[in-house]
User: What shape does this take?
Amino acid sequence: MGGKSEEESSASEYGEPGKYDPSFNGPIHKRSCTDIICCILFMAAIAGYMIVGILAWLYGDPRHVLYPRNSTGMFCGIGLNKGKPSVFYFDLLKCATATNVMAAALNGLQCPTTQVSVCVCSLLTVPQALRLVHSHYFFVSKACLSSLCPLATMNITVVLICPLSPSLLVMNTLFPLCTVLGRCLPSLGLLNNIPSNFTLTENAIYTTFSFLVSDVLSGFNLRQVGVRIFEDFASSWYWILIGLLIAMLLSLIFLLLLRFMAPVLVWLLIVGVLGVVAYGIWHCYWEYDNYKNSSTTISNLGFTTNFSAYLQVKETWLAFLIILCILEAILLLVLLFLRTRILIAIALIQESSKAVGHMMSTLLYPLVTFALLIVCIAYWGITALYLATSGAPIYKVVALNSSTNSCLAINGTETCDPLSFNSSAYMSCPSAQCIFIKYNTEGLFQQNLFNLQIYNVLAFLWCVNFVIALGQCTLAGAFASYYWAFSKPSDIPTFPLSQAFIRSLRYHVGSLAFGALILTIVQFIRIVLEYLDHKFRAAQNPCARFIMCCLKCCFWCLEKFIKFINRNAYIMIAIYGKNFCVSAKNAFSLLMRNILRVVVLDKVTDLLLLFGKLLVVGGVGVLAFFFFSGRIQLPGNAFNSQTLNYYWVPIITVIVGAYLIAHGFFSVYNMCVDTLFLCFLEDLERNDGTVEKPYYMSKNLMKILNKKNKVPKGGK
Assistant: This one.
């Protein structure tokens, strides 16, 4: 009763306990719409988001990312260049510098060199390249700047000048080309095979280019890896699905067994934690005893980056020993004085298993949340892509060989049309060409692309948080209807999950959007802080880095706190139908009046669900490792692990999928525990076990609290 008095003493500070309401028997059905203003704002934001998506679709062109472009800005593989899907770079060295690599990555590898569309990535013959190895220009047909098919048939006649350095010709001779993401890039398979008849100059050019081209190809070789990974998925997808099915069954079995095994598992985990700390105490004492006669001390050692040296000093092990002894003492005291609250947590976990068992459809609801999140992510990604690729291409007349006096008049300011460009108009400068420069950034839409991208991110975060909030409120409504059913399961309403979902959408879109908006603002501030930290990291002094680290830490904590408040506010909204602010205040006050129970239940549940996740993910991961690595053979050679390029691909896929499945199942279970806990606290405050105000909690909980419902005269 001492614990009860302590919690009652905080009632005045965090509000008065809830009063008995004779008309309340579960989630209120007669409710009205809440937070209408925020609902209108959310609908307006969604409408604006749709408008942004339409504008992005009208002005954007994702072909800028999907297809390579030649020097005229025309896409390879479509339109006039249909049948010529690859682009050839005349001087890849210009793409290999640090600055150009970043610029090329952001602009679809539109490097500052002549680029042509080709059918296949073939090269010049060795005699052709060696005859021109000391030339500075390569004379080809007019197709040089538009399309070549194939490149090996280029006519070496003087019609148009295309700059081609001697180093490029040596590269063309040595490196077989391969197609990577539609780009003709050298294969590095023969990097170490320098022909013996090469001169010192050619060797130097070759060696220099090897290092530079490696920089460019480091990212583009990912396509070959991607193809092999796709092949692994194609050959093992059936077994991956079986592994995920096993993870789903293990998660379901674990949750259902908690109904019977929760006390055993919880006490085993508690004893296990105490045992691990006790072993740490023994080990630290053993290490301290080994080094107690050592003359080396912390003061003699001083500061060193070799942290293993500190493990050879007795003071280090003495400090560890003291810390672990204090931790063990705290855990034992908590176990001694909070034993009743641990029993309450175990009973609530068992009751949650019963609730999930009576409403199995709740385990499928994460699929709805997952599908809605996929829609949000896909819409955000497509909108961002179309916004990033909006704007018409701009072409200007450029002299490829501007060193001659006859080309000095061409300064790159004159716009042109590559389809109607006539080089005969520039007879004094034969290297003048109509070259793609950039995409148009003028106009109201193009000038506000950055602002639209920010709006895209904000709307995306708001929608994602709303979807998560909708799922939490829906599950809370379903589980609350279970708790407040006096005779279980006969009094549980029909289709409780569907009813809770409809109530949430009909009455509480505004409240859910309100909570999601608060969380979105905090998350956006964290994104801005991360961006600023990344942007100015090199220029920051230690004081600025410390301030930035403190800000990031504070907003991380704030985000966690808001998620906690929102989660419990949604539970109260699902039960009582109040607006967000009132629900958040009532939930926070209720939890603070029972803070010790909150802490114990939270930690016990976290420990138990962490053990479940480790059990599911670890078990399925070990099974997947032995299966896909070939250590487990199926009869009849149903699956041959030797067909996999990377056996770790299906293993990682199964492990990640098993974690997501376990997280989905356990998130439902965790929401059930939190909902039943709030209902339990409300039940304690509102009812007293009399005939007029009976408890709704289970008999196990009443037994732990030494409470019982009084039976009316003449009743059973």
Summary: The radius of gyration is 35 Å. The chain has a mean pLDDT of 75.
